[in-house]
Amino acid sequence: MTLGNSSLSVDFGDNCSITAALHPGQGTAAGSIEDSTDCGDSEGIVQILQDNYGLTCQLRIEISHVYRTEGDFNISVMARSAAATAMVKNWTLMSVRSPIEDLSLLVDSVVAVPQNVTVSASVSPVSQFVKYYWTLSVFDVMQGVVNSSVIQSAVTDIPELRLMLTDVGDYRIDVMVVNEIDAVNDSIIISSLVPVSTLSLSCSDDKYFSTNATVDCTATVAEGTDVGFVWNLEGGVSTHIKSDNNSSTASVTYPSVGWYNVTVTAWNQLGSESAWQMVNVAENVFRLSAWAMEPVLVGKPITVVACCMRGSNLTVEFDFVSGNHKLVLDHEARVIAASHVYRLAGVHTVTVTAQNSMSVAVTHVTVNVFENVADVDLKPLFPPVAGRHSVFMATFNGNFLILFSFI
């Protein structure tokens, strides 16, 4: 086929084609081109390269085109003579892909178990010619060392992975997005927890309390992972709060008579529940009082006496810190006593608690315990008179010991 009055048609496979009329020229010059295109904003260029003829009598033509979208395109080329007496046609398949510019994983950082979880991959630019390679790993903490092990892997053609998490723990999700010209990675760590459910609150079995009595309020949840507790003790003075994963106990005293609202909130990263209860604080309903027969030496018994209202059917507890005694007060009695031996010198506080099925009352007694008698002092209470009884007071360590008299 001669060059004169010949044409070259190229179909780029993306609804874009170009036809160029070829005219003979000198062997060392680029042939002149007259072309027509139907490519919109795309570019299609046919160029006859220089030094085409030479000794081979072959025509070399460079065809260029800009693809605006991804895809697999069937490119066909047809050369036709002027009289259409000769025609040569050929084709090839070209894959066009975009580089992956951005990748991010989308999933809640904390999820409830058991639950179906969908992890999405956001890829830019959006492409249907990529594959997603997923791995799911779980973290294990053994002897202070964090290890991870793969528990699931998958390959998808869509940017989603559906998981069913049944165990509490921390998980790592990795994805690699791949096409023929690029590969990009991303990962994310999520935690699976059991939500907080069924919070209950009880304050010392709903008894009445006297002022300054210790009220123990206990909150419990039926289920929940990594549960924290927040207390609001209206008007009360918190003495101690002890919490674990599923319960919390707040010890509180109230200095004044009245009704008080106790509120507790149990929470974790998935949500929270709250509960409240009213506490009734009254005057000392048992008229409880106590005193100690002091001072005393280390290793010697000290007696604490408690006095209550008769007929209260009370259980009285003497808490000496280093030991306690729980006694039942006789129905007709008003006074009860308990003894204790301290092994360490110092100032000790004894807590006396009286309670029945309806109420609780508390009082405190301070006792002095000495190591030894370091200083004894004997003083007359009145000037001595011959032939009459004289009264003296003996003290040790500055504390009253005994009164005695002689002539």
What does this structure look like?
The model is unreliable at 25-36 (pLDDT under 50). Strands 17, 19, 22, 23, 25, 27, 28, 30 and 31 form a 9-stranded mixed sheet that branches. This protein has no helices and 34 strands. The protein is mainly β. A hairpin with a 4-residue loop joins strand 27 and strand 28. It has strands at 6-11, 17-22, 33-37, 44-48, 61-65, 71-80, 87-96, 102-106, 110-112, 115-124, 131-142, 145-156, 160-165, 169-178, 183-193, 197-203, 208-210, 214-223, 228-233, 237-243, 247-253, 258-268, 271-282, 289-292, 296-297, 301-307, 315-319, 324-328, 335-341, 346-355, 359-370, 376-380, 390-396, 399-406.
SSE blueprint:
Blueprint: E1 6-11, E2 17-22, E3 33-37, E4 44-48, E5 61-65, E6 71-80, E7 87-96, E8 102-106, E9 110-112, E10 115-124, E11 131-142, E12 145-156, E13 160-165, E14 169-178, E15 183-193, E16 197-203, E17 208-210, E18 214-223, E19 228-233, E20 237-243, E21 247-253, E22 258-268, E23 271-282, E24 289-292, E25 296-297, E26 301-307, E27 315-319, E28 324-328, E29 335-341, E30 346-355, E31 359-370, E32 376-380, E33 390-396, E34 399-406
Parallel strand pairs: 9-15, 17-23, 17-31, 25-31
Antiparallel strand pairs: 1-2, 1-6, 2-3, 4-5, 6-7, 8-10, 10-13, 11-12, 11-14, 14-15, 16-18, 18-21, 19-22, 20-21, 22-23, 24-26, 26-29, 27-28, 27-30, 30-31, 32-33, 33-34
